[in-house]
Amino acid sequence: MCFWDARNRLLLAGDQVLPRTVVAVHEPQGPHDDPLGGYLDSLDRLEGLHPDEVLPAHEQRFTDLPARLAELRSHHLARIEAAVQALRAGPATAWEIAGRLSRRGTLEGLRGFALHVSVSRALALLARLRRLGLAEARPGPPTCWALVPFTGHDR
Fold it and tell me: What is the pTM of this model?
């Protein structure tokens, strides 16, 4: 949640917009949930605000909200494109996509919270691709994700 104090031109940003860190988007809670899309929509709602200062829940205060919103959008759009590229290698489980998206190209060696975040982020990206009509989940076991074939006249 964010709170806008128009009189003092302050945005209490909570964890929604941090000055350096990209907050992990939660994994989808159902087949129609699009947490990454919801997060990007929330950034759009902040766009019209021009605070003198942003007070996040963590890290330090900052002043240039429009620039930070642009950075966050750019980051997420790059991750969406990376997920599309990962699916171009062929149908894969969310686990495999998470590995393809990791810096090392594998989840090997990850444990605990880092492993959970990697897979959750992949699931959120796949849900976004599904909402955009770019990917589909194919029933398993295990469930595999694949790019939706391009027909040439529906996009």
Answer: 0.88
CA 80, 81, 86, 87 dihedral sign is positive
Contacts of residue 143, defined as CB under 8 A and 6 or more positions apart, other chains included, come to: 93, 94, 137
Alpha carbon 48 to chain centroid, angstroms: 21
Q: What is the mean pLDDT of residues 2-6?
A: 96
Structure confidence at residue 32 (pLDDT): 87
The type of residue at 101 is L
3-state SS string for the chain: CCEEECCCCEEEEECCCCCCCCCCCCCCCCCCCCHHHHHHHHHHHHCCCCCCEEEECCCCCECCHHHHHHHHHHHHHHHHHHHHHHHHCCCECHHHHHHHHCCCCCCCCCCHHHHHHHHHHHHHHHHHHHHCCCEEEECCCCCEEEECCCCCCCC
Q: Are 36 and 82 in contact (CB under 8 A)?
A: no
**What would the pLDDT profile of 66-118 be if each residue is shown by its tens digit?**
999 999 999 999 999 999 999 999 999 999 999 999 888 788 888 999 899 99
